[in-house]
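User: quick one
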Amino acid sequence: MEKLSIVKIGGNIIEDDTSLNAFLKLFANLKGKKILVHGGGKRATAIAAKLGIESKMINGRRITDAETLEVITMVYGGLVNKNIVAQLQASNIDAIGLTGADINSMTSEKRPVKDVDFGFVGDVKKVAHNSIDKLIKADFTPVFCAITHDGKGQLLNTNADTITSQLAVGMSNLYETSIYYCFELDGVLKDINDKNSVIKHIDSSLYKELLEQGIIADGMLPKLENCFDALNHGVKTINMGNTNMLTQENDNFTRITL
Amino acid sequence: MEKLSIVKIGGNIIEDDTSLNAFLKLFANLKGKKILVHGGGKRATAIAAKLGIESKMINGRRITDAETLEVITMVYGGLVNKNIVAQLQASNIDAIGLTGADINSMTSEKRPVKDVDFGFVGDVKKVAHNSIDKLIKADFTPVFCAITHDGKGQLLNTNADTITSQLAVGMSNLYETSIYYCFELDGVLKDINDKNSVIKHIDSSLYKELLEQGIIADGMLPKLENCFDALNHGVKTINMGNTNMLTQENDNFTRITL
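Assistant: Done. Structure below.
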């Protein structure tokens, strides 16, 4: 199977044009077929504030009411996505910006109301891997923002990490798929207070050990759980590391495999 | 040659969800290959005002400074475009939303400063008809908003009528192309005060007559000049008429041919 790299960047780097442009040059240099996924929550929060819309969070999660969804659609789908596409075109990457509504690429279901009503938030149900592959086969590079749709005309806000892993699982039907989660840390740390304690390789058995020793906790725990879930559903390798270190050749990232 | 219909809707209909959804159903029912082009100026003006950004116009034309371009990118490329795409998906049209930056589809040049500095406004230089055709051949329906790019990373605001005619000229290399300009009037009127005076068919010789008689003037003059320019560059037919009358079979529109 041919290789496919799916790279995810978070909201922090999108705030800083210089860092973003440096990252996009690294992304442009990645070899082979590739997909970019981006968030943009911080920018959305700032523009919502300017528009007088309060960003409501419960347990660190955004409540997406109708007017917040409008802001997200403007900021993720328009401002952030189209500027990234234009920058990539300037680096000779034939990028195409997408939400899950475009080519019906990612269908989701509005999250049912239990204890909390998260509003217009979608949980991914289906990735149209064959339609997405038509774009890849045409030598276009998809750039996904964190928006899906329900197929009935409703756009839905969807976590960018989830979009990334669901996309990767879907594309694993057609490609040997690797994920690159890019963030501020150099990888998964053995000692959270020591930036130099990056674990180079985590497999299933080391993961169990680390869990038992309580080394993986807090924010990293759900991330790694999601990683092993994606690996168990066909994704080949997951890499986590610093946005400004992205290459396919280096071993700067934490590599995660079954 | 296979037929291709390119439909353009203006800013007014986008303001009204009920009219927009009714129009999108008519668009969905059009037979054969098709492309939609939309503006969104009124919505952009409203959101700019909410953000405290003054919309500067000279001779009825928007001056696009950096912060206005941000609003346009959010509103045209995000809010309006992605909601149209989601609605079309609900009508089983496999839509894909695009700016000129996506798949490098429309490259433009920042308008040179003469008497007026229009800011980040682009004049179309190149339509990548073969790239756009890859989407059409894959059975996707392109939905263009009124944004292009300069190929060097800069997005540019571009008149939606111009995008429509340039797209149509470009696609005429591959298809027998018809344009449908949809607006509030039933077509080109012989008597501007009589809504029932729609001229059913204008060809080159009638156009000359109407010009000589001074029947075509004001806003309609540049529109028709653009039409005949497009027809002289390969577009087969141009239709002008009421948004809520769009079908390929009826003769409600003014039909314009060489």
